[in-house]
Amino acid sequence: MKFDILTLFPAMFDGPFSESIVKRAVEEGLIDIRLHDIRDLASDRHKTVDDYPYGGGAGMVMKIEPLAATIEAVKAERPTSRVILTTPRGKPFDQATACDLAREEGLLIICGHYEGVDERVRELFADDEISLGDFVVTGGELAAMVIVDAVSRLIPGVLGSADSAAADSFSDGLLEYPHYTRPAEFRGVKVPEVLLSGNHQEIAWWRRRQALQRTLAVRPDLLATARLTEKDKKFLRELAKGREN
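The structure assignment produced for this chain is given below.
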C-alpha cells in the first residue's frame, strides 16, 4: 500500500510514523509513506499557499494552484491512487471505510487547513471526502494519521496475526469483547473462569455474548447493521426481556 500525504506541516508526522506498528510496516516494505510539502510547488517567491476568501469572511483558504501542482505531480507517478480530502464535511470515517480503502493500490491524502481548501480541489481532484467525526481540529494532519494507521492494520502482514484485525472492534459491526492476561486475580478481581477452562467453544461463545452485551449497552445503534446470527438475535432478545423485567 502506498500512502502520499499532502501537507503544510510534514514534521507533524515524525512521531506517529516512527513508532510501533506503522514503523515496522514501513521497515518491512509492507507500506510506503511519502510526505509532500505543498509549499514546495507554490509558484511565487514567497511560497504562498493561502489567500483571503472571495466574498469576504474570517480566515484564509488554501489556494488551488500549489495543491493542484502537488496532486498532479504525485498522480503522474502513482496514477491509480485514490484521492482523499480530509474535511469536517466529509463522510464519517469508520471500519467499513478503512476496509474499502485497504483494497486500493494507493491513497493520496490531502490535509486541509485554515478555513478549508478552494472548492475546485473537491471538484477537480477528490475521489472521497472523509471526516473523523462531528468536530473540528486545526488541520487534516490528525485525520491523515488516523486513516493511515487504520488502513495499515488491514494490510496483510502488518499485524502479527491475521486474526488480530478480524477481532478488532467494529470488524463485524460490534464492539470488541473484554481482554484479560496474567495474573488471574488482581485486588480481588478475578479473570472469568471460562477463559481459564481451555474450552475454546465455550470461550468463543462467552466472548460473543460479551461483545453483544457491550454493544447493546454502549452503542445499540451498531446492532442495526451488525452481522448477527440467529443465536445472536435470540441472546439479544433475552437481554432485552431481562431489562424489561
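Interim note for the steering committee: DSSP finds eight helices and nine strands in the chain. The first strand starts at residue 2 and ends at 7.
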